[in-house]
Amino acid sequence: MNVKIRKASASLRAKLRSPGRPPVLHRAARWPFWQAIARGLSSEDAAAVAGVSMAVGARWFRQCGGMPPSHLAPSAAQPTGRYLSFAEREEIALARARGDGVREIARQLGRAASTISRELRRNAATRGGNLEYCSHTAQWHADRAARRPKEVKLVSNHALRKYVQDRLAGNIATPGGRTIAGPQVPWNGRRQGRRQARRWSRAWSPQQISNRLPIDFPKDTSMRISHEAIYQALYVQGRGALQRELTACLRTGRALRVPRERVRGRGKSFVTPEIMISERPASVEDRAVPGHWEGDLILGLDSSAIGTLVERTTRFTMLLHLPPLPGHRQQPRDKHGPALAGHGAEAVREAITKAMSSLPKQLKKSLTWDQGAEMAQHVQLSMHTGLQVYFCDPQSPWQRGTNENTNGLLRQYFPKGTDLSAHRATDLQAVALALNTRPRKTLGWQTPAEAFNELLRSTNRRSVATTR
Q1: pLDDT per residue over 249-276, tens digit each?
Q2: Does residue 169 share a domain with residue 141?
Q3: Are 169 and 249 a contacting pair, CB within 8 Å?
Q4: What is the DSSP letter of 84?
Q5: 214 CB-near residues (< 8 Å, 6+ apart)
Q6: 34 occurs within a structural domain
Q7: pLDDT > 70? residue 167
Q8: Does residue 288 form part of some domain?
């Protein structure tokens, strides 16, 4: 009999790798850590709550991509009691050392005798040539058996993985098809700094990719994936489906999930008389009538700037090239002379007039701006373009929510603290094209370009009908 047991133990040892060092706490013991993370604590503070070192807490946070796995989420609360816990396995090991029988151990733990018998048979240690029961080794056996063998969908479906990768990191291009490389940004495994150049790409978000798949592949059900699965493939270590370098192409550039920081808008006071947003017609607010625009400047290093115009109904975006004028950065400078940085009142007025010149009159109804000095010539702008200009209240960027959201998207290509004057007009056209050809949730996953083209076609049909 002993010979058979030794042979069975040797065969089992050949199949199983060594459990090695026991893991630092087990599944049930990690709940306090993730509950503390859900309350807003840092990984270091959450590690202190869980009773582990800061290094262990940081490793748990990094391995899970900043989000708890489903079986450790705070919503999972406490164990159901269906499976034996590590504490119960310790009690079983102590009882076996005292020589207690299976039924006695089951009575002490309030479990069925068959549960204890099965635990001793399945999860006993075999390295020593016998079936001695060790709690750490038993827990390792149980964790190993509980792993899901299901293969990640992005690993098995090559076409789906290529579709996702192309839209996460595909190169942007001009309307003529010429690729714009953008800045060369090495990936260092961490979030790209706010004052560093960011990688330029098509950069669809995982939610945009997930919801665009049924439109592009209406009959191919294998081309379906949730945006959460894409995020996990990027953030969770060991998934192996997507390269973690692609996190640099996400809008945030984060290598891990972290709570978003709230940014307080800072406005500029503008003391000259103007038409306030409170006097803007109510029809502008509900977005039912197209032709109402929102505008702003995004600023960079050395007073460089790029103008942005967004149509409220379709979210169609146009970028204004505002290069510095001759004499900029030269000393001495006449402080009472014209603005040479390129985004003075006259330069902005001319840029908006040029951008609006190709649009029909029906799509040039109003423009809402903040109280910046670059709009000091708004009266001349209204005369040249037919736009009725309205101004937001001081320090109230939420009154131009569409434009503020668009500026946040554009910061992926034009980060704060970089020289925006280095970009040519063709570069801005390429970035605008990339933004206008990304599907938007608010448009039913249409792209702004598709929605804007429908407006242009309907406007042309109405104008032709009125001339007959």
Answers
A1: 777 777 776 644 323 334 444 445 557 8
A2: no
A3: yes
A4: -
A5: 224
A6: yes
A7: yes
A8: yes
Q: What span, in angstroms and rounded, lies between the C-alpha atoms of 256 and 189? A: 9
* Number of alpha helices (DSSP H) and beta strands (DSSP E) in the chain: 18, 7
Q: 158 with 142, same domain?
A: no
331 in any annotated domain: no
Which helix (H) or strand (E) element contains residue 390? strand 388-391
349 in the same domain as 213: no
| Boundaries of domain holding 93 | 2-146
Tokens of 280: 């803007």
pLDDT at 192: 55
How many domains does the chain contain in total? 3
User: In 3D, which of 447, 468, 5, 391 has the Cα closest to residue 211?
Assistant: 447
CATH code of 414's domain:
3.30.420.10
Count of beta carbons in the 10 Å neighbourhood of residue 31: 20
Q: Minimal CA–CA distance to 246: which of 209, 203, 184, 197?
A: 203
Sheet of 317-322, strand order: 317-322, 305-311, 292-299, 366-369, 388-391
Name the token pair of 324. Answer: 């510095």
CA 147 to CA 165: how far, in whole Å?
Answer: 27
For 381-435, how does the pLDDT look when each residue is reduced to its tens digit (9 = 90+)? Answer: 888 998 988 888 877 888 899 999 999 999 999 998 888 988 999 999 999 999 9
Sequential DSSP letters for 178-211? -EE--------SSPPPTTS----S----HHHHHH
Q: Is the pLDDT of residue 117 over 80?
A: yes
Torsion angle in degrees (nearest 10) through CA of 380, 386, 391, 397: -120
Alpha-carbon torsion, ordered 382, 388, 393, 396, to 10 deg:
-100
Query: How far is the C-alpha of 8 from the C-alpha of 396, rounded, in Å?
Result: 75
Which amino acid is present at 147?
Answer: R
Clarify whether residues 132 and 157 are in a common domain: no
Q: Is 78 part of a structural domain of the chain? A: yes
- Find out whether 22 and 140 touch, Cβ atoms under 8 Å: yes
Q: How confident is the model at residue 342 (pLDDT cuts 50, 70, 90)?
A: confident
Judgement on whether residues 281 and 407 belong to the same structural domain of the protein: yes
**Minimal CA–CA distance to 167: which of 220, 211, 205?**
205
Give me the amino acid identity at 313.
T
Strands 292-299, 305-311: pairing kind: antiparallel
